[in-house]
Amino acid sequence: METMEPILAAHPFFKDLAPRHLKLVLECASREQFAPGQMLCRDEAEARKFYVIHHGQVAVEIYRARRGPVTIQTLGDGEALGWLWWEQPYHWHLDARALQLTRVISLDVQCLLTKCDQDHDFGYELMKRYAHHLAVQFRVTKLQLADMYG
After folding, report:
1. What CATH code would you report for 4-110+118-149?
2. Residue 89: is the preceding peptide bond cis (ω within 30°)?
3. Tens place of pLDDT for every residue, the chain, 150 residues?
4. Of 43, 28, 20, 44, nearest in space to 121 by CA
5. I want to staple 85 with a disulfide (CB 3.0 to 4.6 A). Which of 3, 70, 109, 134 is the partner?
6. Extents of the domains making up the chain
């Protein structure tokens, strides 16, 4: 069985992370698997972990009273889900459903936050990567909204 270290080291979010910082991430990591149709998270539920998708596809959805679940994004190999936990309260603001067998590395949010508090260099490095991720997600969302309503 392949260890999690090369998977995380190759993931775009963690690529080129200092080995000592990658070790901290690995201390918070575990493997999970989701069957097709299984929920990774639900809107308003407590966000206790986030996911690095190793294999599979995940539909990110919002629920609309008149239309039911609406897929706003599809995530796949090498992408991440759940960067909503940097600001309290730590709750999901979306639903996410596996579209096919999906293997992830889940990272415990409280474990990571504790490590960020203990090692400010590590916390700063994660925050820089998080800010970049949010900027990319903002651009993607902007294009999707322009496509839907433009």
Report:
1. 2.60.120.10
2. yes
3. 468 999 999 998 899 999 999 999 999 999 999 999 999 999 888 888 889 999 999 999 888 888 888 888 899 998 988 866 666 778 888 899 999 999 999 999 889 999 999 999 999 999 898 888 778 777 877 777 677 665
4. 20
5. 109
6. 4-110+118-149
